[in-house]
Design brief:
The chain has two domains: 172 residues, Rossmann fold; 179 residues, Up-down Bundle (Dehydroquinate synthase-like, alpha domain), CATH 1.20.1090.10. The protein is globular. It has a seven-stranded mixed sheet with strand order 1-2-9-6-5-3-4, sandwiched between helices. A three-stranded antiparallel sheet has the order 10-11-12. It is an alpha/beta fold. 46% of the residues lie in helices and 19% in strands.
Length: 358
């Protein structure tokens, strides 16, 4: 049985299907949603070796003509150069607007394959099959697609919604522990920004989640996707409320960039970014010191980092000035109001604000 969540965006609406050991029914799901019969499965060698055959066989059994193409594995390969190889593959195989793309992998594969779908022939249909926890609860949902630039993360991209997000939580069994807990950072984020009761549930179910208990994982993933779907439906292109999903990301992206893409997992960097944001929130009397300690303690309980790497303040500031959320020199920070709600505040003097925290 597949649980279903709807991302309500009018004619761009699509379902998020969540199941266990469900990859073998993928073909029937794609057929039910009238997806193009000729599909390029974009993956990486690691994921393709484990799940590529199952996906390929399921598509083939339901009348699809799948072609497989792997990109290198790692955040450092989310570049324009790798994007070009996807275009080359699609063109050389005579893909047209009646064809589609399947992104089979984590956030890197999902972001770059989605951007390829958004831009190839001005847009072709695509499907997200996220294979990491972080991608399942965050990057696969909402239509943000992008590649990185040397000067910043996700600076080149487009909003382009998938036709379907297909989540099989059983694939997390083969995920390395560091990658698994990195995804938990985004789950914690949803509790902080939107749902106090969910945050409390996470505090009470740390070990079950770390043990990959199926019932606990299903609840956490479903809840996270519901929260994100609701926010995306209210603000598809981040004109207002969707910006709250960036909680912890401004500083987190700076860590990723300064460390060299791939050295820090995205969720690890966001974990530190959330602690920094909580400390700033406390300084501005938006939350209590106890709130900061609870956020920090929960992240530590999930074996996530909470201390900033030792780059110079000037380096952090220079990186954050190139953040996508900077407008006319002002940076909009997402700050938690207690636990379960957030506010957006414009920061003119970035260096002054962060100097008291770092």
């Amino acid at each position: 049985m597949l649980e279903n969540i709807q991302v309500s965006l009018g004619e761009r609406s699509y379902p998020i299907d969540i199941g266990v050991d469900s990859l073998d029914v993928l073909g029937s799901e794609l057929a039910e949603h009238n997806l193009p019969r000729r599909m390029a499965i974009i993956s990486n060698p690691t994921i393709n070796a484990i799940y590529g055959k199952t996906v390929y066989s399921s598509l083939l059994a339901h009348g699809f003509t799948p072609l497989q193409f792997d990109i290198p594995d790692g955040e450092e390969y989310k570049t324009v150069e790798i994007l070009q190889t996807i275009y080359d593959f699609l063109i050389s195989n005579e893909f047209d607007r009646g064809c589609g793309i399947i992104a089979l992998g984590g956030g890197v594969v999902g972001d770059i394959a989605g951007f390829a779908a958004a831009t190839f022939l001005r847009g072709i249909p695509y499907v997200q099959i996220p294979t990491t926890l972080l991608a399942q609860v965050d990057s696969s949902v909402g239509g943000k697609t992008a590649v990185n630039h040397d000067l910043g993360k996700n600076l080149i991209g487009a909003f382009y919604q998938p036709e379907l997000v297909f989540i099989d939580i059983a694939v997390l069994d083969t995920l390395e522990y560091r990658d698994f807990v990195a995804g938990i950072a985004e789950i914690v984020k949803y509790g902080v920004i939107r749902d106090y009761d969910f945050f409390c549930w996470l505090e009470n179910n740390v070990q079950q989640i770390k043990d990959k208990d199926r019932e606990a994982l299903m609840y956490a993933i479903n809840k996270s996707c519901c929260i994100k779907a609701e926010i995306v439906a209210a603000d598809e292109r981040e004109g207002s409320v969707r910006a709250i999903l960036n909680y912890g990301h401004t500083f987190g992206h700076a860590i990723e960039k300064l460390s060299g893409y791939g050295e820090w997992k995205h969720g690890e960097a966001v974990s530190v970014g959330m602690v920094v944001a909580a400390k700033i929130s406390c300084q501005r009397n938006l939350c209590s010191q106890l709130d900061v300690e609870r956020i920090c303690s929960l992240l530590k309980a999930f074996d996530l980092p909470t201390e900033s790497p030792s780059f110079e303040l000037s380096e952090y500031v220079a990186s954050m000035r190139l953040d996508k959320k900077v407008k006319q020199g002002d940076l909009t920070l997402v700050l938690n109001s207690g636990i379960g709600d957030v506010v957006l505040q414009k920061i003119a003097n970035i260096e002054e604000v962060f100097s008291t925290i770092l």
